[in-house]
Structure of IgGFc-binding protein N-terminal domain-containing protein:
Amino acid sequence: MFWWLLAAVCSLSHSELLSATVGARNAELRQKFIPPAEAAVNSGTKFMFSFLNSHLDTSPANDSEILTVSVTNPSASSANIVITSPWPGFQQMSFSVASGASQMVTITPPSIQTNYMDPEFEIIVVENKTLTLISSQPVFVVTSNTHTDLDHMDKYSVIPVCQLGQEYHIVGDQSSLAGRLMSSNIFTVIATVDNTLVSIVDYGSKGPKNYTINTGQQVTLATFWYTTNIVVLANNPVAVISGAVCGFGYYNQYECSQETVMLYPINNYGLHVPYNKFLPEDFGEMMVLVQENNTNLFVDGIQTFAGLSVFNYVIFRFRNGGYITANNPIYGLAVGSTNVKDQSGPFFAHLPAQNNFVSSPITFPVAQADNEKSLSNYARVVTLIGNIGFMQLDSYVPNGLAYTRMGRSNFYFIDIPVQPGVHTVSSLNGGIFSVTVYGFGEITSYAFTPGLDLQTSGTC
Ligand SMILES: *[C@@H]1O[C@H](CO)[C@@H](O)[C@H](O)[C@H]1NC(C)=O
Ligand SMILES: *[C@@H]1O[C@H](CO)[C@@H](O)[C@H](O)[C@H]1NC(C)=O
Ligand SMILES: *[C@@H]1O[C@H](CO)[C@@H](O)[C@H](O)[C@H]1NC(C)=O
Ligand SMILES: *[C@@H]1O[C@H](CO)[C@@H](O)[C@H](O)[C@H]1NC(C)=O
């Protein structure tokens, strides 16, 4: 069952880079799909998603999860929202969100979490726990899963159905083997149309595991083992949510926390990924997945790996940050962690590549739930050096001197404190930028990326 392999690499000349580890997975031939031609920002009118399990034991009385969905409406007219799910006990929800406002709703029952209470691990199961959200206007949707005591938290941006695809590479927690849980890593694959063939490639050694599922059904795997770089293929667009029930990030102490992202299809990977650690981390950890064989990775212009294959992935640790570039498209994922003073906690966050940056405004909600109000919340704005005096959060335009360079790149970032409410980041000169919203408290944190330029099928 040891079909994963780790090997340390020690040829690092750059002082910012603390370590780089390459992982690999043996597997079958991989199919490639032709990417759609158009690109658009990820707000939309139809979303399909699920909550990954965050219930740490088999007693319903112990941990209690608060599951929420926040719908933010940047459009000029009010949006009518309907949320449905086939899961027994879920009641259909209908509400409206005024122009410029955000509305948070609580999703019950907690058993709607995939693989709730961990009954099925190391087994791929088909479940009916998908939520479908339909809006009359383009909206931005973010989910949150947190325990009542604010522990075990993460959030993810929901990618609209129009931006889903047919090939994904899973990301999981790399410290899962240290966990005390039956499962730690978990992902779910949701069908958006009937008769969807889902293939889980590289899980086990006996070839792809195939499932044919209908609209709103999903294939879920929860496992004690590593999941990074498992490949999901489908013959129709699918939604994939990936992470850990309770991962440890880099600082492997006794407290674990949920880590989640909704993945985007691999045809959105890019060549230039700027990275810097998040507040208040001691150092930064991020993972890089590759899309093609013979991929060479460079950190701050220095070649760090040559000839990586599609089966490889790399875990980088940085003192502060670095600029990761490659000769073929790559994907970067930030892994948050608790620092030595017990501040912050594990989370997963997309690291937008330059081709995922946008130039149109990004509107997002902060600290929607009462139990989140004690967190320190930030909007990280990343842009190119030519735009640093021109980025605006609501009516605040930070001075260009307040930005920090990301490795040896032309990308700079600023972490702007944000209060609970709805905020908008925009560019005064039409320059491109990305936003990561994150927050943290004592042994807890979340992060999500509210606006990414992703391929679209054209029917948002
Ligand atoms: C990458 O190389 C492997 C092994 O050599 C091969 O099986 C696979 O088809 C290649 N994939 C791509 C995308 O070229
Ligand atoms: C779960 O709750 C039961 C009582 O409701 C308690 O006996 C048990 O120790 C708790 N388990 C954990 C892991 O907290
Ligand atoms: C899911 O829904 C399908 C179709 O209604 C049903 O046949 C199946 O038994 C359900 N599966 C579970 C695990 O509830
Ligand atoms: C599983 O699906 C893949 C397509 O993703 C196909 O090539 C393969 O033949 C299928 N295997 C089985 C056993 O059905």
The first strand starts at residue 4 and ends at 9.
